[in-house]
Amino acid sequence: MTSQDQPAVSPPADTSLVNRYGGQKRPLSRKAKRGIAVALLAAGVGFMAWVSTSSASGVTFKDIGFSTPDATQAEVDFQVTREPGTAVKCAVKALDSKFAVVGWKVVDIPPGQADKTADGGRTVAQRVAVRTESASVSGVVDNCWIPGDGK
């Protein structure tokens, strides 16, 4: 008599979450937490130093108005604030309806004198005429800087 072969029964798979995904993760050590905190603090201090020195030139500008006397010219009104006695250059641009630059001009603003104005001669108003290659619908100051400031 021969015995019949019984099919092999495989043991049931362990479906526990620990087996599937692993055990609990160990929390960060105190030393690792301190290292992360020091790194974040150093990055924050570095960022603040960069922000404070990136605007150290002391030149700010503000767009005031814009007009188009004709299709070949635009007039841009703006204010520049800088230290009295400091010459400044500003790039002014005229834009069309698709925001394409249709006129560009770099303007020299001479050093101002500390006169009896409310802010000591720091702010000066400018009106600049910019020649355009087609009709413009906007005019803005792109940037202002101190000449010879490495920009």
Biggest β-sheet: strands ordered side by side in the sheet:
1-2-5
Sheet/helix structural class: alpha+beta
Question: Can you give the mean pLDDT?
Answer: 84
Shape designation:
elongated
Tally of distinct domains: 2
What does this entry look like structurally?
This protein has 151 residues and is an alpha+beta fold. The chain has two domains: 26-54; 60-145, Immunoglobulin-like (Sandwich), CATH 2.60.40. Helices cover 20% and strands 36% of the residues. It is built from two helices and six strands; from the N terminus they run ααββββββ. Strands 1-2-5 form a three-stranded antiparallel beta sheet, with no helix packed on it. It has a three-stranded antiparallel beta sheet with strand order 4-3-6, with no helix packed on it. A hairpin with a 5-residue loop joins strand 3 and strand 4 (101-109). The radius of gyration is 34 Å and the shape is elongated. The chain starts with 16 loop residues before the first helix and ends in a 6-residue tail after the last strand. The model has no long low-confidence stretch (mean pLDDT 84).
